[in-house]
């Protein structure tokens, strides 16, 4: 979450911990939601154990979950009905 990148320097450089106390829990909930969704959707997407582990590792790398969504999830959902029938 980009707001956390603003809140952390404010906490340590400007002695303003309020931003982290608000944005931190939101970030944590979104992180747990991502990890939960990986487990919920892996069977639907037909992921192997290796791909599931890589998606979970992506949870701790900045921007990596966006890449997982773009290249592993969205292509399956973006197909037009004519493409799926072929």
Automatic annotation (TrEMBL):
Bilayer topology term: Multi-pass membrane protein
Key words of the record: Cell membrane, Membrane, Transmembrane, Transmembrane helix
Places the protein is found: Cell membrane
Pfam families membership: DUF3817
Segment forming the signal sequence: none
Transmembrane segments: 20-41, 53-73
GO CC field: plasma membrane
Major subcellular site: membrane
Stored InterPro entries: DUF3817_TM
Domain DUF3817: 2-72
PANTHER family registered for this protein in UniProt: MEMBRANE PROTEIN, MEMBRANE PROTEIN-RELATED
Record protein name field: DUF3817 domain-containing protein
Species per Swiss-Prot/TrEMBL record: Actinomadura rubrobrunea
């Amino acid at each position: 979450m980009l707001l956390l990148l603003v809140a952390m320097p404010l906490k340590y450089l400007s002695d303003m911990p309020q931003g982290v106390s608000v944005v931190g829990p939101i970030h944590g909930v979104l992180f747990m939601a991502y990890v939960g969704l990986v487990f919920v959707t892996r069977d639907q997407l037909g992921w192997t154990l290796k791909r599931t582990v890589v998606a979970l590792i992506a949870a701790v790398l900045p921007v990596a979950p966006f890449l997982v969504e773009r290249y592993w999830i969205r292509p399956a959902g973006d197909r037009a009905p004519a493409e799926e029938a072929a």
